# Entry
Amino acid sequence: MQNQPVIILSHPQLGQNIGAAARVVRNFGITEMRLIAPRDGWPNPDATAMAAGAFGKMEPVRVFDTAADAFTDLQYVLAVTARLRDMEKPVFGLSGAMGKINEMAAKGARTGLLFGPEASGLDNAEVALCQGILTYDVDAEFSSLNLAQAIGVAVSHWRTLCVSETTETQWQSESPLASSADLDGMMGHLQDELTRARFFYPPEKTELMMQNLRNMFMRADLTHQEVQTFRGVIKALARFRGQSKPD
Amino acid sequence: MQNQPVIILSHPQLGQNIGAAARVVRNFGITEMRLIAPRDGWPNPDATAMAAGAFGKMEPVRVFDTAADAFTDLQYVLAVTARLRDMEKPVFGLSGAMGKINEMAAKGARTGLLFGPEASGLDNAEVALCQGILTYDVDAEFSSLNLAQAIGVAVSHWRTLCVSETTETQWQSESPLASSADLDGMMGHLQDELTRARFFYPPEKTELMMQNLRNMFMRADLTHQEVQTFRGVIKALARFRGQSKPD
# Structure
């Protein structure tokens, strides 16, 4: 089905959960699932046993080492996490998240939903790579969902809100959205130039400051063309610096 | 929680599914579950093992011999079934069903959702006792849901559509959003530096290029703090330029 989000499981532990996830993902018409560093390797017989044949009716599951690798061809990924994090990112409930997924897909974005491992959930570095956060409104006194159930909740809401009763949103840009690779390139370029300009002080703050800048740019849903434009800006601002003496 | 539907499992076979169902039912704030003639009796240790403590945080599960017995204090029950049946009953999708549950609860009805056994689904006599039918929009080529997943789909949609607020996107920044003056100041600063760097060529394009850059930043909904940070970036990138010779 066109415009479906890719379902991405980071460091899943139990094959049973991967298999149960594949079954419900396929039930609701989604055909692409990715794994980041599954604990017990891949393929996994426990997953196959629980999937009720789902793997035979979807694209081959692709396995990646890191979230950055898994995201390279995606433009809009939401991290599904219960814990609120101190990040400058939008936080959606289920309806809002699916509305946004639908909007971004209508703009031509490939979208994804990222789920963390059973015991510990997503780590902050992974959440930082996502454009936003999806948090479920669960009962505060009993909030821990099974991983495959959490995935079932997301994909069934996607189906209900984006397929069964979709209202198409139109986008009026002729340039495609920037890929993760575009954004990575731009952020690397910016970090190089800022490092040369001794912007990061003390140097330990580099990672946090780059994360904050990245969050800012991610929220803008940049197009490919805008990334090119902004790289021109960085280049122009920095252009004569290498030829001068520092003060 | 008031006005919640009672979750009723008819002739469930596997204790694991009953336990997994209880867990997700409780996750979404529902505290009453009933069983009709569970195959392996009740209580069931497999159910307890899968429930992650849910049974201790809900009303005791009540067991009945027949659907009619289980329904005596309920006024509005929907049968959740994939198969269309030749019955004069309304058939709802998830949104419609939850809207109806909400409406009936607001009228003072006690409501319920009835789920059939894993292998065979509900029989016609049980469906006949219900006020309507809830059918999920699943993929026709892979339509068989796990029982606990089917229950998770229903209760999460109930929560989303009947409990959570409809405008649910939150924002978790502690810094206030940037004012127009903040943004004007930043764009002016950027334009000055880019002009010095001879970025605008030909000069007639200045206005259009600044408009494009401004659109980009506006979409990011910058905070006051982020505008400050970005002005630091502009300053750092441009810092030595004034002291050097153009090439």
